[in-house]
Amino acid sequence: MHLLQVYSNPAPGAVTPQELLFRSRTREHQDATREAPRRARQLRADEAKAVAERYLVVRNVRAVAAEFRLSRTTVSRILTVQGIDISRSMKPADVKRTVRMYAEGLSSITIGKQLGFDNHTVLIALRRAGAPIRPQPGR
Q1: Does residue 133 lie in a domain region?
Q2: What is the pTM of this model?
Q3: Quick one: angle between helices 108-115 and 92-103, nearest 10?
């Protein structure tokens, strides 16, 4: 149908009927030569154990996922199955340390890197603790 519309009502810069035919042949060829999607490789029990052990050392899902070339979701699922709690909320001692470090002049990004939290988590903890938030430089 589109071919008839293009042929009977050509617009400036429109695709020619020959180009449409060529594209359809090329697309059919690509579909015929395309491989079937592969299934994800299933981890063996010892590999899942290695993922869990590495997490217990670094305590960072993103780092473990990059190291083992897995998605963060897969790493989280493995850890949950292994019975490891991966929730990373700030404990009261972390909040006190954060408030002290922020009062000393460190940025939320620097504090987050030192304590292993995202800078937004640090800012949320500071706000909840009632600490005055400094404006960003340049704003």
Answers
A1: no
A2: 0.46
A3: 140
Asked if residue 13 is part of any domain, the answer here is: yes
Residue 55 contacts residue 74 (beta carbons within 8 Å): no
Domain that holds residue 104: 92-128
Domain count, the chain: 3
CB 122 within 8 A of CB 108: yes
114, 104 contact by CB (below 8 A): no
pLDDT (tens place) for every residue of the chain, 139 residues total: 565 665 666 666 677 767 777 777 766 656 556 666 666 678 888 999 999 999 988 888 888 999 999 998 999 999 999 998 887 788 899 999 999 999 999 999 999 888 888 888 999 999 999 999 988 777 6
Q: Assess if residue 20 is contained within a domain.
A: yes
